[in-house]
Specification:
The structure holds three protein chains of three kinds. Chain A is mainly α. Chain A has a two-stranded antiparallel sheet with strand order 1-2. Chain B contains twelve helices and two strands, in the order H-H-H-H-E-E-H-H-H-H-H-H-H-H. Chain C is built from ten helices and ten strands. The relative contact order of chain C is 0.19. Classes of the chains: A mainly alpha, B mainly alpha, C alpha/beta. At the B-C interface, loops of B face loops of C.
Chain lengths: 339, 291, 243
């Protein structure tokens, strides 16, 4: 490995550690509830975007129904807490993985149906299943409380400190999502997913078990989103069907990945870090009026039309082009895969 | 039994408007290979435009179509040119996001101008009905159905009897081949989108007469429309019409036989059944690209 | 020994009978050519054998075991690889990554192992060197020239060590120098024990390379034998010139 490459690797690792350290220390650096609230939601979306990317970014199958998994995870934890009579505190956090497991099982069922179709129909089927989950949440009143909502136990800690445990829970899940995403990227499984994205029939021709791979990516992605939804439910302490199986949540995580760069590792993180504070700012200043939606739509359209490939790939391409122009290393410009 | 029959008739009548809306949606997919998830919002927009026109000009809702259809057509061409044509790569995925953004923008604007209150289009003959056997059929439903048939008929004539219609169908079958024989696919796409919008305007009127609506109604609408075109087969007009009728009749019968609450589930039940038995829908084609 | 046995294969597309009671046999260790005028059903036979389209009737056996109804990924796992008429590789993966995609083993191992696990990377580089495209290993598939893609496609297919490789027009669209290299590589791989069945229009390529030739016309075989025999068969001449 060349010295230059090693230097770049060290820098990259150093950067990641630095960012992680800041994230870890954030509540100490800036403890006021307004900031930590933004931090909770931003970290939530970092996790959501990264998790969604495992399916949408790696395989190219765009799921617009992930809000369904988000809501399902929420309701699962809420119902678990209610039926097991678990008191508030730190224990509910320990049950989050069960919500993830439950969501995984649901995803196997939904994925089995949804993946019988190719990419275009798949999008529609995921939307349909999301609305179906929303309907179920609204109508199974005995189970979910219907339109009246479902309450979570309220934790004993409060005041300024309230947000902090939730922030760390979200950070933990985001880290988990990133770790899983990274591991997949480096594995043969991940290569298979990327191959499916490029040319699914060719992937079949070289032995990639496409259905199994797609389903696995879908389930992993859904489980992570379900767990994040569970923590969210606990955070807001009261959930309603249309606010937790909310298409806007589902579309936001997708937009963030597109903004940052589909299929890259840092893209979803970047997208979330940029868009969520923006979203919260818009909601805070314009939420009362309906203009909030118009402005959000404008941001949305701007991102897609101006940066169709996303930030990370565009930046990498820029760097590559500059390197090709500057250094006569002889090879063609399209050298490095976007990471 | 009469109840079931009445539900079936109602299903056919309302199926007409869904058939019209779904046709526009599937046409857009067929020509541009994009999923216009904003179609529901466009229908609601059409409904609101008719609402405004009918209120301020005192027109019968059906008469407002003379204004709203051309307006929506041109709006469609504009939207396609500005927001959709620039998408070069990753078309299918990005177009979903773009059309969703358009839907949100429309929802926001409508909410701003009309507030979130539910409204409904009214005609002075709203409650008039005529007897059919043991039950009654309301005139507005019948007019709506006839209108949908008329527009669907016009659309079919346009597509199958005119040269430009042939260009549209050619583009739907094979975009590259169409380009190679000199068809301006960009113009075809814009016109197709415009047609989709115009049908949304018409659908909006009938939808607005038979339902109370507000800016947020597009979610429910689009989820049904999408399910319909999947059943019919993406890109198939014939499929969209038949699927709409099947879905609506099933839903209305379920509403009567089981309960209204679970009626909306019929859509999903049918969808799941389709996915098991024939994922490409009634008239869709199992895609095996580039062999 | 007959490695691939096709019996009475039929396939109809709407009104067109693309493959009409086609029976052929590919001997192990051979380089068999499948030739015929355009539209004679050659690529359709490939698609049927490799599981890309379902057959109407007939049977296909590999190593004396039927492989009807299996999906393309299972068939690759059994040892039959194929290339496509227009060379297909994964444009957004590097050439090396293209080589690491093919799945040898199924099951959980495939899921969790690293992409360059074990000796995979070394084998991949070795194959790339054999094909003389090792210098583009880190280039994106999309950046490669057509000739490089053709070689890459062949190399990637070889990664799972198939016993039978179906080549769809390996000489299509390549310049004479590259053509000779491709022919040479096929011959060398054949010497290592790999059987080839190739569809080709380039007659001199076929005649020089193949040990056995099958001629297809309107979906059914009309002649079989060594290149010499087939070249002089009047039915074959008639098919080509008459069609």
């Amino acid at each position: 490995m060349s010295a230059l490459l090693r230097q770049a690797r060290v820098l990259k690792l150093g950067g990641i550690i630095a960012v992680f350290a800041v994230a870890l220390a954030l509540p100490a650096i800036s403890p006021d509830p307004a900031t930590t609230n933004i931090a909770v939601f931003t970290m939530m979306y970092v996790g959501l975007a990264t998790a969604w990317n495992i399916m949408g970014g790696y395989t190219g199958y765009i799921s617009l129904g992930h809000a369904g998994f988000f809501g399902f995870g929420s309701y699962t934890l809420g119902l678990l807490l209610a039926h097991l009579g678990i008191a508030a505190g730190y224990t509910p956090f320990l049950l989050v993985p069960i919500a993830g497991l439950g969501t995984a099982v649901l995803a196997v069922a939904i994925g089995w149906f949804a993946l019988r179709t190719r990419a275009a129909t798949f999008v529609i089927v995921t939307i349909a299943f999301m609305f179906m989950l929303q309907l179920l949440a609204e109508n199974l009143v005995g189970l979910t409380g219907g339109g009246g909502g479902l309450s979570f136990p309220v934790p004993p800690w409060g005041g300024d400190y309230f947000n902090t445990p939730y922030y760390y829970a979200m950070l933990a899940l985001a880290t988990l999502a990133l770790a899983v995403s990274w591991r997949i990227r480096r594995s043969k499984f991940g290569l298979g997913l990327l191959a499916i994205r490029d040319d699914e029939d060719k992937a079949l021709a070289v032995g990639v078990p496409t259905r199994a791979f797609k389903l696995t990516a879908f389930v992993v992605s859904a489980a992570l989103v379900g767990m994040i939804g569970a923590v969210y439910g606990y955070y807001v302490t009261y959930i309603y069907p249309q606010f937790v199986v909310d298409p806007l949540i589902g579309i936001s995580m997708v937009l963030m990945v597109f903004l940052g760069g589909l299929g890259t590792l840092s893209g979803p993180v970047l997208g979330a870090l940029i868009l969520e504070p923006t979203q919260l700012w818009l909601a805070y200043n314009f939420g009362a009026t309906r203009l909030y939606l118009v402005l959000y739509a404008a941001v949305f359209l701007g991102v897609i039309l101006l940066l169709p490939r996303g930030i990370v790939p565009s930046v990498m391409e820029l760097i590559e082009r500059r390197r090709a122009r500057a250094g006569p290393s002889g090879s063609t410009p399209a050298k490095v895969a976007a990471r | 039994m009469t109840l079931v029959l009445e539900a079936a008739v109602l299903g056919v009548l309302t199926g007409g408007v869904y058939a019209l809306m779904a046709s526009g949606l599937t046409l857009i997919f067929g020509v541009m290979r994009i999923i216009n998830v904003g179609h529901g919002a466009l229908v609601v927009l059409g409904a609101y435009l008719s609402f405004a026109a009918s209120r301020s000009l005192g027109l019968d809702p059906f008469a407002t179509l003379v204004i709203t259809m051309p307006v929506m057509f041109m709006l469609g061409v504009l939207l396609q040119t500005v927001f959709i044509r620039p998408l070069k790569t990753d078309r299918e995925a990005l177009s979903v996001l773009v059309t969703y953004a358009i839907a949100l923008g429309i929802e926001g604007l409508l909410g701003y101008f009309f507030t979130a209150n539910y409204v409904q289009l009214h005609a002075w003959y709203d409650t008039a009905s005529f007897p059919v056997g043991d039950f009654r059929v309301t005139y507005v439903y019948l007019f709506g159905f006839v209108l949908c048939l008329a527009i669907l008929g016009a659309m079919f004539l346009f597509l199958y009897r005119t040269t430009f219609g042939a260009s549209i169908r050619a583009t739907m079958l094979n975009r590259t081949a169409a380009q190679l024989i000199g068809i301006d696919v960009d113009r075809v796409a814009a016109v197709a989108f415009g047609i989709g919008m115009a049908t949304a305007a018409a659908g909006g009127v009938v939808f607005g007469i038979t339902n109370a609506f507000n800016p947020g109604s597009h979610y429910d609408l689009i989820s049904r429309l999408l399910t319909i075109i999947v059943l019919g087969g993406l890109g198939s007009l014939r499929g969209a019409v038949i699927a709409a009728l099947i879905m609506l009749v099933s839903e209305d019968i379920t509403s009567v036989v089981i309960s209204p609450v679970w009626a909306s589930f019929t859509f999903f039940v049918i969808l799941v059944a389709v996915l098991i038995v024939r994922p490409q829908g009634l008239y869709g084609v199992r895609v095996r690209e580039r062999l | 020994m007959s490695l691939l046995q096709v019996d009475g294969l039929c396939k109809r597309f709407g009104g067109v009978l693309a493959v009409d009671d086609c029976s052929l046999s590919v001997a192990q260790g051979s380089i068999t050519g499948l030739i015929g005028p355009n539209g004679s059903g050659k690529t359709t036979v490939f698609n049927l054998v490799t599981g890309f389209i379902p057959k109407d009737s007939g049977s296909v056996s590999f190593k004396a075991r039927p492989i009807d109804g299996l999906g393309p990924d299972r068939i690759y796992g059994l040892g039959i690889g194929r290339t496509f008429q227009l060379a297909r590789i994964f444009p957004r993966l590097t050439a090396l990554e293209n080589m690491l995609v093919p799945v040898r083993r199924r099951g959980l191992r495939a899921l969790f192992s690293r992409a360059d696990w074990g000796h995979e990377k070394a084998r991949a580089m070795e194959m790339l060197e054999f094909l003389e495209i090792a210098h583009v290993a880190d280039l994106m598939g999309g950046a490669l020239s057509y000739g490089q893609r053709k070689l890459l496609e062949l190399g990637a297919v070889m990664m799972a060590e198939p016993e039978l490789v179906l080549l769809d027009e390996p000489a299509g669209g390549v310049n004479p120098a590259l053509l000779e290299r491709i022919g040479d590589r096929i011959r060398r791989l054949n010497e290592r024990g790999i059987t080839f069945l190739l569809v080709e229009h380039n007659m001199s390529f076929v005649m020089n390379l193949c040990t056995e030739v099958v001629v297809l016309h309107r979906g059914r075989p009309i002649a079989t034998g060594t290149p010499e025999v087939v070249r002089n068969d009047p039915a074959v001449l008639d098919a080509y010139l008459g069609a």
